[in-house]
Write a structure and sequence with these properties.
With 295 residues, this protein is an alpha/beta fold. The protein has 2 domains: 112 residues, no CATH class; 148 residues, Collagenase (Catalytic Domain). Helix content is 38%, strand content 13%. The strands form 2 sheets. The protein has a 5-stranded mixed beta sheet, with helices on both faces. A 3-stranded mixed beta sheet has the order 3-4-6. α5 packs antiparallel against α10 and α10 packs antiparallel against α11. The longest helix is centred in the C-terminal third of the chain and has 22 residues. It is globular and about 55 Å long. The termini are far apart. Bound molecules: zinc ion (2 copies).
Length: 295
């Protein structure tokens, strides 16, 4: 394999990826400006883009792939927890669902916790932990998908594997079935206390938003520091912000048709309640910028 190196795009490349903004409402246009966003850093040797030099997905490329636009009759995003969610190690489902509702601006429903009985499982020979086969979980999600569901996202504290040859997988999606399943098991901090709980919740929110955005057809981001950056390791994914860059905000808005100001306001309330201090500060600054009037 020839080794290609990833070079971060310059300002012109980033602006081009957002695409022409003439004709958009002024608040939306300001939300797509560079203010408040950091260009993607040059990847370190162990980072995602060092081993996966992806070309990136501009807003135009996203449109050219004909992303699904939400059917008004199917607007509810469902969460389906699998396995145990009562041991105290899990992320609080009410907070997770409030975050997802604010992030995607969709009605959100949490289905009753489903047992993983009947799902093919094994014990991982390195960790000794139980692992569930993603294919079985995806089949269950598709089979029981509620009529009004846009997507059903399975979440679990069990580790996952996609087949016998694999050690583990963080998650898997079946976009044509509008379902995906993701594990939080490998995001536990191993520590107790409120700071560790907040970090773990933040990681869970990130996985949920990143993976659900993939279900909507949004690819990895190579333009800014962004929720949609690929990641190879925990320090790299912890360094990603919880918000979308202008390119990916525009894609999400295209799919869901929300008002950017109202969405940021809802996310700000969530971030304040969840003690996501950095994110709350960022959202407050962004809101001041986009509401500052014509300009
Ligand atoms: Zn991804
Ligand atoms: Zn992005």
């Amino acid at each position: 394999m020839s080794r290609r190196l990833f070079t971060p795009p310059g300002r012109a490349g980033r602006i081009r990826a957002v695409g022409p903004v003439a004709g958009l409402p002024p608040t939306f246009r300001r939300a797509l400006e560079e203010q408040g966003f950091d260009p993607i850093p040059r990847p370190g040797p162990r980072d995602w883009l060092a081993s996966h030099p992806e070309p990136g997905q501009s807003f135009a490329a996203f449109l050219a792939a004909h992303p699904a636009v939400l059917d008004p009759a199917r607007r509810t995003l469902y969460l389906q927890p699998f396995g145990r969610f009562d041991t105290g190690r899990e992320p609080p489902l009410d907070l997770l669902s409030r975050f997802a509702a604010a992030f995607f601006t969709l009605p959100l429903a949490v289905l009753p916790v489903a047992p993983a009985s009947g799902v093919t499982s094994r014990v991982n020979r390195y960790t000794g932990a139980r692992q569930l086969l993603t294919r079985d979980l995806l089949a269950l999600l598709a089979q029981h998908r509620p009529a009004g569901a846009c997507y059903v996202v399975g979440i679990t504290m069990d580790d996952l594997y996609p087949g016998p040859a694999w050690n583990f997988v963080f998650g898997e999606a079946a976009p044509h079935e509008r379902v995906g399943v993701y594990s939080f098991a490998r995001y536990l901090t191993g520590e107790a206390g409120p700071a560790a709980a907040t970090l773990f919740l933040r990681r869970c929110c990130k996985v949920l938003a990143h993976e659900t955005a993939h279900l909507l057809g949004i690819g990895h981001c190579v333009f800014y520091s962004c929720l949609m950056n690929g990641s190879n390791n925990l320090p790299e994914s912890d360094a990603r912000p919880l918000h979308l860059c202008p390119v990916d905000l525009r894609k999400l808005q295209h799919c869901l048709g929300f008002d950017v100001t109202a969405r940021y306001q809802d996310l700000l309330i969530f971030a304040q309640n969840a003690d996501f201090a950095d994110e709350a500060r960022w959202l407050a600054t962004q809101l001041r910028h986009i509401k500052r009037g014509p300009g």
